[in-house]
Amino acid sequence: MALLRIPKAIFKxxxxxxxxxxxxxxxxxxxxxxxxxMTIHSGRPVIAAEGLGGDGxxxxxxxxxxxxxxSRGLGLEFVRQLLQKEKGHVIASCRDPLSAADLSSLKxxxxxxxxxxxxxxxxENTIEEAxxxxxxxxxxxxxxxxxxxxxxxxxxxxxxxxxxxxxxPEAMTLVYQINxxxxxxxxxxxxALLKKxxxxxxxRPAAIIANxxxxxxxxxxxxxxxxxxxxxxxxxxNQLTKTASLEFARKRDPIVSILLHPGTVDTDLSKPFxxxxxxxxxxTREYSVERLLGIINRIDAKDNGKFFAWDGQEIVW
Length: 317
Known about the structure:
Elements: E1 25-26, E2 35-41, E3 44-51, E4 60-68, H1 73-85, E5 86-94, H2 101-109, E6 114-118, H3 124-137, E7 143-146, H4 169-197, E8 207-212, H5 228-250, E9 255-261, E10 264-265, E11 282-283, H6 285-296, E12 307-309
Helix pairs in contact: 1-6, 3-4, 4-5
Protein name: Short-chain dehydrogenase/reductase SDR
Family: Belongs to the short-chain dehydrogenases/reductases (SDR) family.
GO molecular function: oxidoreductase activity
């Protein structure tokens, strides 16, 4: 399928609001040190354990950021918070930017700071073309956030499997393609741009790749079973990201790759399963992304290849 080509004029966007910091307070023990934080969420104090999570994002110079899977859910919220609370240029990609109403609204608010690009993780030629356009326009990347993923698609009869007898090979292949292979292909084609960016001139020590995984992808944490395709696809994403992180380190590329578990968030992906979520554990998109950006903005070289939960704690493989 040929890449949808959209005139550059479509991508240049509205008026920039004043930069605002994130809500909450934190104490930081050094430039990239550890800290303890308290944030108010759902009317109750939530205390982050010692680790990387936090809410201190305001004013960060993020350079050039790419959010893949940005039309809705967590991807859209990443775009919104990067624009509102950080400095730099944001590139938002999804399969069809022209039909993404919320992204169109954001471009009316942020003149010159947001670029929309068509990118379909199941079609490598669209990823390659997006990389070429980013190279031509910016010549670098400093942050890549891969958010696209599927758990259930009613029109394709894809549902989390509750029993072995419900495993369908076609469904498993599609889930694996979108949740694991897709992000890896984006990393493949954006790696050269991330190497050029390297975090130089930003508030971070290196370029960052943050792939959204899930705790259910942890083999060591699997105590309930079920969800064969989704679990396996996230386990695969963990392995692929870890493997790429070792390659970057071996080549001394200025790129740090991490995996992030956002918690259970109130999005379309989790909606059919929210009745089973304990009280206080269903997060808003705003809260989850705030915490994840706090992690990203405290990442150091020693964190390359690690898997973090929303509260900054490492998750067992």
